[in-house]
Prior knowledge:
Helix content: 25-40%
Oligomer: single chain
Distance between the termini: 12 Å
Bound molecules: adenosine-5'-triphosphate, magnesium ion
CATH class: Alpha Beta
Amino acid sequence: MTKPMRIVVLGLQGSGKTTLVKRLIKGNPHSVYDPLHEYGSQYNVGSFNIETFLTNVRISGPRIVVFEEASRYLGKHSPSRAALTYLDEHRHMDQHVMIVCRRPTQVHPDVIELANYLIVFNLPGANDKALLEAMACGLGDIVRELPEHEFVVVDEHRKVHLSPLPARVDPIRGAIHGKS
Ligand SMILES: Nc1ncnc2c1ncn2[C@@H]1O[C@H](COP(=O)(O)OP(=O)(O)OP(=O)(O)O)[C@@H](O)[C@H]1O
Ligand SMILES: [Mg+2]
């Protein structure tokens, strides 16, 4: 059993975040808090409020919990207390967490700072650039230049990996599926 990870996926609208997350969670039991119903009927769509969703997650115990559109309930100024508490506790429940939002400046600082991995698609904003530069030197410039649908992975040591990553060294796939 691999250690529970917190993975944050960032990128502007239409960059490919949801497409990538769907690929990464395939084959593992998962629940998705999905306010925009992007995941289809086979998923646990977010027709509940976040508190009810988290109660269900604690009971049903999926291996991966995805939080889509996180800026709506993990926003910089008014994050859900229940969601922040869950993010502090999920590792004790052996659950990986994937948090999806467009811009790092939109979410509570803990969401970004405590991430084990960041997956970042093109992000041209100056404020986002400054925040990313603080995480890994050069990251802000790298993500400004990324072509459509391409991304970088920032690992636990804040080393930046360019996509596509060979499956055998893909740190995210290894973390989630227990391969390395
Ligand atoms: N690697 C890819 N190659 C080609 N097309 C892609 C790729 N990834 C995503 N797309 C296409 O881009 C469009 C947007 O993808 P997706 O819904 O995953 O973006 P998103 O980042 O989740 O957007 P939003 O912020 O609006 O939720 C979709 O039509 C999808 O099929
Ligand atoms: Mg999406």
